[in-house]
Amino acid sequence: xxxxxxxxxxxxxxxxxxxxxxxxxxxxxxxxxxxxxxxxxxxxxxxxxxxxxxxxxxxxxxxxxxxxxxxxxxxxxxxxxxxxxxxxxxxxxxxxxxxxxxxxxxxxxxxxxxxxxxxxxxxxxxxxxxxxxxxxxxxxxxxxxxxxxxxxxxxxxxxxxxxxxxxxxxxxxxxxxxxxxxxxxxxxxxxxxxxxxxxxxxxxxxxxxxxxxxxxxxxxxxxxxxxxxxxxxxxxxxxxxxxxxxxxxxxxxxxxxxxxxxxxxxxxxxxxxxxxxxxxxxxxxxxxxxxxxxxxxxxxxxxxxxxxxxxxx
Amino acid sequence: xxxxxxxxxxxxxxxxxxxxxxxxxxxxxxxxxxxxxxxxxxxxxxxxxxxxxxxxxxxxxxxxxxxxxxxxxxxxxxxxxxxxxxxxxxxxxxxxxxxxxxxxxxxxxxxxxxxxxxxxxxxxxxxxxxxxxxxxxxxxxxxxxxxxxxxxxxxxxxxxxxxxxxxxxxxxxxxxxxxxxxxxxxxxxxxxxxxxxxxxxxxxxxxxxxxxxxxxxxxxxxxxxxxxxxxxxxxxxxxxxx
Lengths: 313, 242
What we know:
The complex is a heterodimer.
Chain A: E1 3-8, E2 13-17, E3 22-25, E4 35-36, H1 54-80, E5 84-89, E6 93-98, E7 104-109, H2 112-118, H3 128-142, E8 150-156, H4 160-178, E9 185-190, E10 196-200, H5 207-210, E11 215-216, H6 227-230, H7 237-247, H8 263-266, H9 287-291, H10 295-300
Parallel strand pairs in A: 8-9
Antiparallel strand pairs in A: 1-2, 1-4, 2-3, 5-6, 5-8, 6-7, 9-10, 10-11
Helix pairs in contact in A: 3-4
Chain B: H1 2-16, H2 18-27, H3 29-40, H4 50-65, H5 73-93, E1 104-105, E2 108-112, H6 113-116, H7 123-146, H8 151-157, H9 162-177, H10 180-188, H11 193-200, H12 204-209, H13 211-220, H14 226-231, H15 235-241
Antiparallel strand pairs in B: 1-2
């Protein structure tokens, strides 16, 4: 673009460009009538560019900051704060801290095996069921979980709805995940009340036998029948209930579950010492004995009783 | 404090009146030179250093763009001068690999490189054209005076937006198709804004606002001013293209 110098002043010159604009520019020793090609043009008044009143922009910024704060807090509460926890117990014990969305915030191995299980595993940000599936797979791979094993979920959630949702979700997911692969017992415990729910996964080999009682449910609060009646009801409800649940496994013809023996946890239920002492010494044998097949042996020898169940001193 | 207010008053006066601006700039020439010297690290030579001209136009910009919200005037002006000089310096650096024609040619130090080259242009012809252009411009300035318009006014009044510029061009085009408008302009010494708006479809407000610019543009397209008109070859291009 060429410019004709129209007028010269000491501090500026007026140029006419080819498009008919009259412009002011630095007077680089120009003469009137000269044609120039590379002038230093005077820029427009800068004030016009950022006239938009300051308080309007300031206000907009403040409102934006408020929004950010509100939504940021929401997001923080929803995603960053630990809201509920799931304690997964196979033999390795793993604690999962979840946010409101059910995503895993933190994974903690609460025993040695749990730490081993979590070694090299990154579960942060994943959904709880994904993490559960992956951890179960790892447990199977590492030999912690095998046919007939038990997986226990203890759920600690502040709301009843969340609790039931999580327990349903976990149960169905684990069942789906292990279907046709392994037959194990799933136990779901409400960590706050101690309510327990047990079910088993289906294995094609045993499905016919088990189809009728794939899921059995007992709640300690409502539990008015079965073994728990014989064991001291007044105290120790939580352990008692878990014992009941495990017992449901026993009648099956499954060859495996050693740890599902009914006798072991029941031991502490009716005791005349320890924290569960009911203050009354039971000289007579209590009901479980009558159920136990080994009752007669136990009466005679306490020493060989590996499940140190009865307290005949 | 009073001194500061005095300067602000002077700046405001200079903003509206180019004569006052020229006086103000001349008064504070030492300041402009000092700021340029800070940048050049040597005192600038008037009439030789382009930097001084840049600093002056920057000072001019400072006068136009200053408001009390920007703080003290001289600090603002110094900042503007410095940044304009930096801009200029960067722009010049692009040509730093080009050898100046002023450099001595070979061993003969008295002869500049430019003098040894024979450029295709005829210098005397160029000087003739320049002289003719100057005469045309003088004539135009004289004629504009009759309308009470100076070139500085026109440059202040010149449309900045492309859309406005196009509206003005359309009005000019309409005038060229209807030569009686030129006659009316010359006879009455007033811009026939109403007719131009009616004919070209431009807004009345646009015409009123850029009245001085329109006067200059129309005058250029009356008789004479062949050279300037030749220079303005792109003015009508935009209109016919639309």
